[in-house]
Amino acid sequence: MPDHILSGIKAIVAVNLRKKGKLQKEIAEYLNMDRSIVSHYLHGRHPSKRVIRVSEEIIKLPVNNAIKIINSLSDDRDITSKIIKELYNAKIQVDPDRCILCGGCLECPHGAIYKDSNYRINIDHNKCKLCGNCISTCQTDALILKALPNKLEE
Amino acid sequence: MAINTEKEVCNGNIKIIREGSAEKRVLSWNDEQCIGCGICKDVCPVEAIEMGPLGAIFKGIIDAPKLDIDNKKCVLCGICASSCPFNAMDLEIDGTSTKELPQYLKIKKDISLNQEACVLCKQCEVVCPRKAISIERELPERKTLVLGEIYINKDICVLCGICAEYCPADAIELIKNDMNPLNLNPYKDIVVDTDACVYCKVCEKACPHEAIEVVCYKCPFVKRIKIPELYKEIKGQTIIDKEACVSCSWCEKICPVNAIVVKKPFEGELIIKEDACNGCRACIEVCPCNALTFPKSEGQGKKSPRLAVNPEVCILCGACVNACPADVLEVKRTKINMVGSKIPSWENALNKLIN
């Protein structure tokens, strides 16, 4: 079941990328999968329409909730972060009015959060996998997922 | 992944420790330094601090820690450490105290001394409620200030000891004899300790046999010693223990030469609702500045206030408010003196102290 939904979401991402003019080969490389499956995605042969419908509903959820579900579908953070980055123009940001510099988020599993020379918390967006671990760790709700409008709806 | 926060309790002191791959933080709290003002509790953004029964602790009714820190809630941000006016808390990040780091915000209190101006009078040492000031002074020997000569004519002297009894400086001593049948005299000699003698001439006047002659060269009672000269000869230093100092400014108020400048952490006032006071003295026991008192009544029939504060030495820490069982006291802070780098979330937390 989670695999079906993941396929559905991947299919939606593949279609998005195709609309942006990406080649089938490039899409397969981006999603790290076989070209034949991408071809199935692009031609609507797989997964089923029902799966696509559920996947679309998940994507339409508020971004904070959607990334929790997407992250739960797979343990492969490379693929989930690629999917999330493609679907949403989302970044985790530090709200300086709320961040108390407690450093709890520094235990980022991807090493994406660091202290600068001023002891302030910063996020390396190149390393960030949008796994949301820091958001749930933060006791003062200082880490927020800031999303620009959903790319699907643009 | 969230990492475990450990708690160690040793001799009543608490350590909260969190060691992760990125950094090690240790928050320590010292029961002895803590006076129970509760500022840490008020600023804590995660409500991890709980105060003990302060009134009872300070009156010695029960033996309990003044506060407790919940390691399950504490996130080791260190706002408590930076706001503690009594240095009872400290947060170390990888071994460095945040108090030493200019990147952090802290409540500023300070005491500074102008040693050049200080006359080493020791009054501040006496009044300091925290025993934070000690003065080491070396005075010139008394004999350099008092010069003279004393002569006892031992041919006339009968060794009666009247002069020794009168001597205000205990400078005259009769030397006892080994009494035996061959030596009948109880005393064999009289000596004057010229280090102690002030050449005051009391002995000369007291001697019934006019055996003593005294000459004073620089007698303080005859010719005043020039104070500036004496002052130049006084050496010493004033040592202020800044960790112990609570910046009550009592020393500043009484310093005769304005050699001490104190910066208090807060501005505002302490309000006393006397009518509610039941006279339990908990606030007086708690106050780190000895700023509260029950004034003695001025004559009979006159009603004196039950409880009074001297705002000059009150630092508005709020310990009395926590200790009071009857809601008599209220701290109204209007300003916090802060120093260090701007951290908006910390300012928000500290501004909770302003009501």
UniProtKB/TrEMBL annotation, chain A:
Q: Which domain of life is it from?
A: Archaea
Q: Does the keyword Iron-sulfur apply?
A: yes
Q: Which CDD domains match?
A: HTH_XRE (cd00093)
Please report the stretch or stretches of sequence annotated as the 4Fe-4S ferredoxin-type domain.
90-118, 119-148
Q: Which Pfam families match?
A: Fer4_10 (PF13237)
Keywords, A to Z, come to:
4Fe-4S, Iron, Iron-sulfur, Metal-binding
**Which segments does the entry list as coiled coil?**
none
Which GO MF terms does the UniProt record name? Answer: 4 iron, 4 sulfur cluster binding; metal ion binding
Q: What InterPro entries does UniProt report for this protein, alphabetically?
A: 4Fe4S_Fe-S-bd, Cro/C1-type_HTH, PSI_iron-sulfur_center
The protein's name: 4Fe-4S dicluster domain-containing protein
TrEMBL record, chain B:
UniProt superkingdom: Archaea
Recorded hits in InterPro entries, A to Z, give: 4Fe4S_Fe-S-bd, 4Fe4S_Fe_S_CS, MvhB-like, Polyferredoxin, Polyferredoxin-like_ET
A molecular-function term among this protein's GO annotations: oxidoreductase activity
**Pfam families in the cross-refs:** Fer4, Fer4_7
Residues annotated as domain 4Fe-4S ferredoxin-type: 25-54, 65-94, 109-138, 148-177, 188-217, 236-265, 268-297, 305-334
User: What is this protein identified as?
Assistant: 4Fe-4S dicluster domain-containing protein
Species source reads Methanothermococcus okinawensis
Q: What is the lineage of its organism?
A: Archaea, Methanobacteriati, Methanobacteriota, Methanomada group, Methanococci
